[in-house]
Amino acid sequence: MEFVSGYRDEFLDFVTLLLGWFRKFVAERGAVGTSPEGCWWQLEGQIRRLPQDRALWVLHVLPNRSVGISLGQGAEPGPAPGLGAARLLGDEPPLHLRDLSPYVSFVSLEEGGEEGAGTEKVETEADGEPAPTSRESPREANPPREADEAQQEAGGGEVGCQEDRAEDEPGPERRKGQRSEAAPLHLSCLLLVTDEHGTILGIDLLMDGGQGSAGRGSWTQNLAPRAYALLCHSMACPMGSGDPRKPRKLAVGDAQLHRELENLVPRLKVKLAKTPMRTWGPRPGFTFASLRARTCHVCHRHSFEVKLTPCPQCGAVLYCGEACLQADWKRCPDDASHRFWCPRLAAFMQRAGELATLPFTYTAEVTSETFNKEAFLASRGLTRGYWTQLSMLIPGPGTPGHPRGSTPSLSVLLNGDPYQLLQGDGPALMPPVPPDPPRGLFGSWQDYYTWRGLSLDSPMAVLLTYPLTVYHVITHLVPQSFPELNILNKQSLKIHVVEAGKEFDLIMVFWELLVLLPHVALELQFVGDSLPPESDQQNFTLQRDDLEVSVRPGSGVSARLSSGTKEKGGRRDLQIKVSARPYHLLQGPKPDLVIGFNSGFGLKDTWLSSLPRLQSLRVPAFFTESSEYGCVMDDQTMAVATGGGTSPPQPNPFRSPFRLRAADNCMPWYCNAFIFHLVYKPPPGSWARPAPGPAPRAAPPTAPSAPARRRRGEKKPGRGARRRR
């Protein structure tokens, strides 16, 4: 598949951007020890003429003493040694963080390692929340009166624990006790330039050798020239979105570095804050912005390197110039060229307005091409529970959650009240369950929100898109496409969720099916080789009793499900089963329905075996995609794997309202945006089942025909019988 915007981990795109900008910065910076007077005087004149940014800029100095980087086989040292830059920036980039496991891992440089690789001890207060920490510069402790001005304007100073880990961990989960043969590399310090809103503008990595050089003295030399070079490059070539610009004021997070830059920064006609910042705590609204530079579809160069323009005909694909456009236009084979796809992509772009038609009060913000998801979540206090699964930031020490890059086990996912997992730090988002079951069937978010008592300002649709899509398939699509199944009258349903991914991380949201379908006993079986192996063959039961939902280990699932009877007190159960294996290796009874979310058939080889397995079962199988382009690619993969196809995709009324930001194109991408079902190839020697449609018209009634005249010599029928009677 050529576009992977809706399928690749957002954090990997973020790391790719960091490494791409850093490699360009290193190439243009020159020697590390070069004096700024001799290396940057030409650039200074250009920066002085740049327009002024009204936002305050901050130069963060983030030391690291405990985490080392261990190179695996296949890692290629470069400007950012050990970070797998070549792997991330290649023609076939990885889709998930776990794909980087052979290339890079993180190890602890602390002796003993009781806390695990790269973890920290954080003191907690009585209420269980992390106590505020102060990471002042070891060089010089600032007086209490310092940093008041800079602290107020920058929102409190340095980046908190989440942001620190988001930058220091561009790779898979850290493995306790794992070390390569060579000594681990030490990222001794991270220089980071951001604005007061959290947009990253530049980054510099100060690498040391191994464990023995974890002290600060190894990176204090020539820190001012490197920081000044970073500031100049961040102004002339900002990493985040926007044109080159300079700040109206700059704050520095290190006392000695602040003194060394006092005579350098004014040369750029930039005002330096009077005092350095001395605390770490950012203001509540501070977060790393989701807005990032885009890339050319062909050469993958970012917008801070070249100017990107969309295709003049379809407006869907971004190119850096005529050369890349022509190369993509004439690509071989022909069905992979932009010449072949351009008319189709133009039609896909025309669906942007339809996909953005949603009833929510925040629709204009979340469906915009410049949607800042991180700022939206932070401004509404959606920073805990299941909302952390939508954020790019990594939870810090003491924060409930699981490490980025690994799939959580069921014990973690099922830990907590479903209502609490859906709440944020602000007001309650999910009202209690209505006492009466729904009357009629819901066909839109508007109808569901009205019955559920939700305000149209609530962002719950982002999480509930998965159970509501299942509900839509059961109540609308299956009766339309497979009326012979009579699915609305069934008392029990077995549903397979194939190649489960993000929906498994949000497994507790499926309890909403108990509210929407109180008359049906449901079993959801999550299947996929990306599920955690320790959860394989585990069974759990979600029980809804009045207004409460409880979780317990499952037992006797098949027996209760086959009976379809209600539990005592009118309670229904939702059975959850997990099979951590490809679908074609699954053994068990035939399901009533198969569902897959944002499948991407062309991105995983196991689909070439799973689709024939579904062909042999011939069960109704519905799948969602994040774009109409993905639906076309799935149809092609289905034809190659089985000889069948897919039904015409239709917009999902219960799609997620959050628009997914694409790096190399402008197409509208939404989670669960479109939905279709598999059309199986008819078995040999049989006729294909006619497509669903209206019943054939009955023939008009005709008058009864006159009885035929009896020939001579024929007996009247029934004469002998009358004589015998």
From TrEMBL:
An example Gene Ontology molecular-function term: zinc ion binding
Biased composition (Pro residues): 686-704
Residues in MYND-type domain copies: 296-342
UniProt feature coiled coil, ranges: none
One BP annotation, GO: negative regulation of DNA-templated transcription
UniProt keyword annotation of Membrane present: no
Positions of the UniProt region annotated as Disordered: 110-181, 553-572, 686-725
Biased composition (Basic and acidic residues): 136-148
Compositional bias segments (type: Basic residues): 708-725
Superkingdom to which the source organism belongs: Eukaryota
Keywords: Metal-binding, Zinc, Zinc-finger
UniProt protein name: Zinc finger MYND domain-containing protein 15 isoform X2
Organism: Lipotes vexillifer
Gene: ZMYND15
